[in-house]
Amino acid sequence: GENVEQHPSTLSVQEGDSAVIKCTYSDSASNYFPWYKQELGKRPQLIIDIRSNVGEKKDQRIAVTLNKTAKHFSLHITETQPEDSAVYFCAAARGGGADGLTFGKGTHLIIQP
Amino acid sequence: SAVISQKPSRDICQRGTSLTIQCQVDSQVTMMFWYRQQPGQSLTLIATANQGSEATYESGFVIDKFPISRPNLTFSTLTVSNMSPEDSSIYLCSVAGGNHQPQHFGDGTRLSIL
User: Fold this and answer.
1) Are the Cβ atoms of B103 and A34 closer than 8 angstroms?
2) Residue range A9-38: average pLDDT?
């Protein structure tokens, strides 16, 4: 089955700086890669996703890049703000998302004021 | 996106008992899934809830322990059977409006077993 590795487990950055979280996946048949943000005690919320026919996608301060050859995808957050502090999960799935998601272990992002 | 309601939001149960968790969506959705999130950890897929047929379980999860129903396109239940302290987790349902649609999560059910 699919295996998703996520790094780092904890990331502390100064407010206004950029943050990068990296994930690798093992199943070459995976073609859908979402990112979720989970605040303490809350549900995971989708922040951005990318499909395997696209190399990069951007939404305001958030961007995701995908390297299918290396089976690697990354989340980039620019101009970080205190409200970006949360746990971020990457995930992978086959079937364009019709299959269930395999999640990475998560990254605790801390924005230092 | 769809409004997803899970009940109960939390419960404390005795070992050996069973609890049924409900997931209700305010619109018809193609895909419904159940996940488990153990304290401080990531999410693990339990099963895909198939409308009108048996759920598809992931490795390590079995129907006798986690029976799932999905009678229609807006509702599913997950039962945690014969509970032990190791079942203490947050159980989340997620839904996708159709193929190639993103998954969105309910608020989860926080379950504690004494």
Assistant:
1) yes
2) 97
